[in-house]
Amino acid sequence: MTQLDREKLNRFHIALMVFNTQSGIVLFTLPRITAHYFGTNGWLMLLPMFLLVTLNIMLISAVYRMGRGKSVFDILGASLPRLLLVPLYVLLWGLFSMIGCLVVKQYALIYQMLIFPTTSDMVLKVFVDVLVFLYVAKGIYTVSKANVIFSFLLLLQIPLAFFFLDEFDLVRLTPFLLQEGTDMKEGFIRLYGAYMGYELTLFLFPYAENNKRWLKHVHLGNGITMFIYLLVTFLAYGFFGHKALIHSSFPILDMYAYLHFPFIERIQNFLFSLFLFSIMHTGAMYYWSGQAVMSRVLPRIPWKMIVVLSMVATACVGMIPKSLIEVEAWFRYLTIAQIGFSFGFPLLLLLLLLVQRRFKKHA
């Protein structure tokens, strides 16, 4: 009996996996993004983005229901020739692996800037890459269980919101709605990118319970992310005001700097270090998804070796961007590609399932 037969991913674990894959470094820049692109009370734009993501998750749920839990690879393989599948899988491998690489690269650059300015960002990145590999090499089941601890370590920071209430002023929110923004189209891309990560549940079909109830927990994970995003951005708007947020690179770190505890200095560095767990999980999920598709192209190579090769290949490419601005520019293009995948891939699968169903009726 294989591990797949013995064990299925817990629904609650899936919810936390979705949450921790979505959240990350973007949390520290989200107030600035909303203020810059949407202007006054830009934090409200998180709600329509959440609804759009919810519709996308419903699309993924429709694939699972119509395919009766079949793997996305089985659905594709039943209708498309290998001549088309190989380039599609290689393209998806490159997309997922590069996102995993840049997630780590971005964290390494910020960590270097805050704590180790004399250390090379590539040294820090390699250190995190090793942790990511050790994490993902344990397999998706162990990853899902370890992530429970990682998620709770991050969620334990929620009570810190009470420390900012004394400096919170509703006047800073202003009565105006979405004024003084710069580019709503660009803001949509950046803001939707903050929710990305849920689409990787497409590759969890064979590992989830053999019923539809686990799909509700994908919505739960997305809901937790929205709650955290709303809390953080709302507090930042009332703490700084939207004009000050525009000129703050990392508003949440600036807010953390106002916290003072007798037992620790520079608590913002400590709290930012805790986000290493989120970076590890996000990077691991994208590298795991990358190897899942590449294993279909190279079935004889062990999946752990594919992860290693993916990390080495993307690390070489990841040496090109030298600054956070360059990394954010790369992320923009990858986000556009990821948005296309998150909507286009489920629609393709639904179309193939409809065609397969029609052929069965006429057979």
Quick one: biggest sheet? Answer: none
| Integer average pLDDT | 89
Number of domains: 1
- Regarding quaternary structure, how should these chains be classified? single chain
* CATH topology category name: Amino acid/polyamine transporter I
End-to-end distance: 34 Å
Write down the CATH class: Mainly Alpha
Q: Tell me the strand percentage band.
A: under 5%
Radius of gyration: 21 Å
Total beta-strand segments: 0
CATH architecture: Up-down Bundle
Count of runs of 4 or more consecutive helical residues: 16
Show unreliable segments: 1-5
Could you name the CATH homologous superfamily? Amino acid/polyamine transporter I
Order of helices and strands: HHHHHHHHHHHHHHHH
Question: Helix content range of the residues, please?
Answer: over 70%
**How does the helix and strand content classify structurally?**
mainly alpha
Morphology call: globular
What does this structure look like?
By secondary structure, this protein is mainly alpha-helical. 71% of the residues lie in helices and 0% in strands. The protein is globular. The two termini are 34 Å apart. The N terminus is likely disordered.
